[in-house]
From TrEMBL:
Listed name of the protein: Rieske (2Fe-2S) protein
Gene Ontology MF term list: 2 iron, 2 sulfur cluster binding; metal ion binding; monooxygenase activity; oxidoreductase activity, acting on paired donors, with incorporation or reduction of molecular oxygen
Record's keyword terms, sorted: 2Fe-2S, Iron, Iron-sulfur, Metal-binding
Database matches in InterPro entries: Cholesterol_7-desaturase, Rieske_2Fe-2S, Rieske_2Fe-2S_sf
Length: 317
């Protein structure tokens, strides 16, 4: 497969997703890498294929004293730069490829070895400056190509179907859309009905959502979609991340940030807000996974130019 959007900055994980001295497998544009964080908070990523006899290093283990990863097959050790580690001497030669990482505000970015075509979006910095990190939610590998997944985030009609039940949406209106190259901003007004008691127990966050939701969405193509929403107990910035794993599989997760005044409220708010985000992801990804192969649409809906703007960025990359 041709790499998808080479030169794009991809946000492959948040530090909190890694734990300490635990190897994780990451697939980006068909390449498998193993990534881990040591007890000092240093993060390493190298090719997941062992250069000896091609075992997956992510099934191995980390040696805390030597800062190495051990292959599960014959127990050879490699350091985070991709050098073979023998007895107490390190080979100076790289034997396997390290993945170059850029760590910014606990977010782990990479260009996967391609010439950078876009900078790391400053949208993330703006959020970190004003909001507090709440947690990660909705991590999932979606059966669906990158384009179909990203288009959902720019689709201002899918709320009417995909999220109708959850948010009891009765109407959805786009009041503003502006794009500047790879950055775009949208303002949206959603009118909702009351939720039933059962729905409120399942997703308590619904109870505090007003009848009319005025949301702002900001986009940094292709990795990032942010939903800014105001709720009576705090403002949230919900960052939706996407990156291509393989041609027909896309990774997603949500980084949740909030401005909450009261610490008790934060405690109560945290879980329900993360839970609601996970439900939204389930619904979006469920929609993509159920689609038949793409054809030329025979019907147009309002505001679809926002979706076509994203599609154009993708096709003209
Ligand atoms: S395959 Fe990794 S040590 Fe042999
Ligand atoms: Fe959605």
């Amino acid at each position: 497969m041709e790499p998808i959007l080479p030169g794009a900055p991809w946000l492959i994980a948040h530090r909190s997703m890694l734990g300490v001295n635990k190897p994780h497998k990451i697939t980006l544009n068909t390449h498998d890498y193993v990534i881990w964080q040591n007890q000092k908070g240093e993060i390493f990523a190298i090719d997941n294929i062992c250069p000896h006899m091609q075992a997956p290093l992510s099934d191995g283990w980390i040696c805390q004293e030597r800062d190495t990863i051990t292959c599960p097959f014959h127990a050879l050790e490699f350091d985070g730069q991709g050098r073979l580690y023998r007895e107490d001497k390190k080979d100076t030669q790289l034997i396997t490829k390290p993945l170059e990482l850029i760590i910014s505000n606990d977010c782990i970015w990479t260009y996967a070895g391609f010439e950078p075509k876009l900078p790391i979006p400053d949208l993330h910095q703006r959020i970190v400056d004003e909001y507090e990190f709440i947690g990660v939610s909705g991590e999932k590998s979606i059966k669906g190509d990158f384009l179909s997944n990203i288009m959902v985030n720019y689709d201002y009609n899918h709320q009417n179907g995909t999220h109708k039940e959850l948010f009891k949406i009765t109407s959805c209106d786009v009041t503003y859309f502006e794009e500047k190259g790879y950055y775009a901003q949208v303002k949206q007004e959603l009118i909702r009905d009351n939720n039933t008691l059962g729905e409120l127990l399942k997703n308590p966050i619904l109870g505090i959502l007003p009848k009319t939701l005025t949301n702002t969405l900001e986009y940094a193509f292709p990795s990032t979609t942010v939903l800014f929403a105001k709720t009576p107990i705090g403002n949230i910035a919900q960052i939706h991340i996407l990156y291509p794993e393989v041609e027909k599989r896309t990774k997603t997760f949500i980084l949740m940030y909030a401005q909450v005044v009261n610490p008790l409220m934060k405690f109560l708010f945290q879980n329900s807000v993360l839970q609601a985000a996970a439900t939204v992801i389930e619904q979006d990804t469920g929609a993509v996974e159920s689609l038949y192969p793409k054809q030329k649409p025979k019907i147009r809906l309002p505001n679809e130019e926002i979706m076509f703007y994203a599609e154009k960025l993708y096709r003209n990359w």
